[in-house]
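Anyone up for a design puzzle?
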């Protein structure tokens, strides 16, 4: 499994967004010179993920004030992700990672068919990566279960702390 270190340049990836367009992270970073928050989630079928996406949308203004752009990523079908984006009126990109391109590049933990408990088949577990305007990794949260994700308020506090103390 990939292990990323703080200060390392974040890996690039290319995925399809819910509008059916190619989203290239490296190109996006060049044209959108702000912090990015990659939010990996389990899928549209996950109630905890739906709550998380709702909370991110509710706090979108606070993230924008901090010049942070959320991007949500799941190993789920475009159809399911479109449904989720519409249901929650999400105003940030939602990307499908069916081939595990970003999941593997970021070392996101996977739930597989061989794991000791059944949980909706193979999917990525929750993870969040904060990437600064220079493309460097500033914080990461990796999980092996659906629960215990950082709250939007906790993320906002973390972003403020890192910016204040950034070398």
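Challenge accepted. My sequence:
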């Amino acid at each position: 499994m990939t292990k990323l270190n703080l200060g390392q340049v974040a890996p690039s990836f290319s995925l399809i967004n819910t509008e059916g367009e190619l989203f290239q992270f490296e190109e996006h970073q060049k044209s959108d010179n702000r912090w990015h928050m990659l939010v990996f989630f389990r899928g549209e079928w996950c109630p905890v993920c739906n709550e998380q996406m709702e909370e991110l949308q509710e706090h979108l203004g606070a993230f924008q004030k901090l010049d942070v752009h959320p991007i949500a990523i799941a190993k789920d079908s475009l159809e399911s992700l479109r449904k989720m984006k519409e249901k929650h009126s999400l105003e940030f990109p939602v990307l499908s990672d069916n081939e595990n391109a970003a999941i593997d590049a970021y070392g996101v933990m996977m739930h597989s068919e061989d794991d000791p408990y059944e949980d909706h088949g193979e999917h990525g577990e929750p993870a969040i990566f904060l990437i600064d305007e220079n493309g460097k990794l500033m914080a990461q949260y990796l999980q092996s279960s659906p629960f215990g994700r950082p709250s939007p308020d906790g993320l906002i506090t973390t972003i403020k702390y890192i910016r204040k103390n950034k070398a």
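A detail worth pointing out: The CA atoms of residues 59 and 158 lie 14 Å apart.
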